[in-house]
Amino acid sequence: VYPKNADESEKRTIAKCFSVMKSQVYTPEGIFKQRWTTPDRLPHRRFWLWDSVFHSMGNVYLDPQLAYESIKSIFDTQADDGFIPHMSSPDTKSEFTQPPVIAWGLYKLYEKTGRKDWLEENYDALERYLAWDMKNRDTNHNYLYEWKVNEDDPNCRCDECGMDNSPRFDNVKPIDSIDFSCYMANEARYMMKIAEVLGKQDRANEYDKLFHAIKDAVNSLLYDEEDGRYYDREVQSRKLRKVSAVSSFLPLFVGICTPERAERLVKDLFDPETYGTAFGVPSISAKDPTFGEDMWRGPVWINYNYFIICGLRDYGYEKEAERLLAQTLEEITKWYHKDGVIYEFYDCEQKVSPSQLSRKGPCLKPEDGNVRIMSIRDYGWSCTFYVTMMMERENGGTFY
Fold first, then answer.
1. Cα gap 326→201, rounded to integer Å
2. At residue 238, does pLDDT exceed 60?
3. Mean pLDDT, the chain, as a whole number?
4. How far is it, in rounded angstroms, from Cα 276 to Cα 382?
5. 3-state SS record for 279-347
6. Cα–Cα distance measured from residue 154 to residue 138, given in angstroms and rounded to the nearest whole number
7. pLDDT value at position 352?
8. Is the pLDDT of residue 319 over 80?
9. Coil, strand or helix: which one is 361?
10. For residue 294, how far is the Cα from the chain centroid?
């Protein structure tokens, strides 16, 4: 499926994305009872939780059944207590989890296909996973959620949240996390929708209550009125940890901030001194002392651009959403035609090829994967979100 309004360079890029997406599908093996996907053949190789949901977003345009299996395979990794690991292989599992985006992805697939049975097949497993998060990742019971942090690895403090080397985690103190809390609010919102479709109104009401409880907690405890920003909050000191990262825009995506607060976020989003860089949205504010070219310390990640685009649309900032959408598609297209690959992340300053950016350490020239992996080439969710954004541009911002 190709969008009719794509130009020739975009058609060639989307063909590349489809090719990459096909190459990252595995056949059933070990714990996996159906096809499953990987973010890339090197270095990841294995199965990853939130990547698999993101893959579904693009795979639906290849084959709806493949899109469903991309998500269904997540539950093959689930433990009896509801826990789902962030990474698995056919015969191994990690001890960490990853951002909860499964209900959101599954409902989006339902919107596209109308397959109510897919909601039914996974509802109980979804409930058990979210119950595990609530029990194990909200230690102070305030409806704000805490990632498990790796104290011993400065280059990967928080692979659980996906923002491995973000300066948010540099002091490794337990924090009520703005991103985890927003993801949980979003899952509650979509679990309510799923429960309503399945005729489980009592459960829908419970998820509606959970959504509003998280919403209230985020707005009362994680927002700084003076700065006009959402931050993480240290669990012990109860002080805001004022590191401004792209994760702080997730209240837009989840729809939990007031119109007045949304306006301040949008102003920050396009301020050239903070996030309005040559190519937005950088993973950390340009004012942050750690801002540079290393992974989650400056470069742009396509999944977050997509989240923010969705949030801008929902709050009525259509022009701003289209601006960021066009910018994102243009940047991916440009570097595909220059370098022949779709990258993991991109330079917010538009000065260098993503191949020259750092990834948990200085860039190696020439690249040597035996020493350190650089920005991954032909990265799964960059491809699937390119496809998704192209298709949504064709259809006025809808998932269809």
1. 40
2. yes
3. 95
4. 21
5. CCCECECCCCCCCCCECCCCCECHHHHHHHHHHHHHCCCHHHHHHHHHHHHHHHHHHHHHHCCCECCEC
6. 24
7. 95
8. yes
9. coil
10. 18
CB of 241 closer than 8 Å to CB of 233: yes
Could you give the CA distance from residue 335 to residue 353 in angstroms, rounded to a whole number? 7
Per residue in 38-79, pLDDT (tens digit) is 999 889 999 999 999 999 999 999 999 999 999 999 999 999
d(CA 178, CA 231): 6
| Residue 307, Ramachandran bin (φ over 0: left; ψ between -120 and 50: alpha; else beta) | alpha
Rounded to an integer, the average pLDDT of 13-24 is 98
What would the two tokens of residue 20 be? 């990459």
- Rounded Cα distance, 280 and 301, in Å: 9
For 323, residues 6+ apart whose C-beta sits below 8 A from its C-beta are none
What one-character-per-residue DSSP string does 112-180 give?
Answer: HH--HHHHHHHHHHHHHHHHHHHHHS-TT-SS-B-----TT-TT-TTTTTT-TT-GGGTT---EEBHHH
DSSP 3-state of 47: strand
Tokens of 124: 């109980």
Sign of CA dihedral 212, 213, 217, 218: negative
Q: Which band of pLDDT confidence, cut at 50, 70 and 90, is reported for residue 397?
A: low
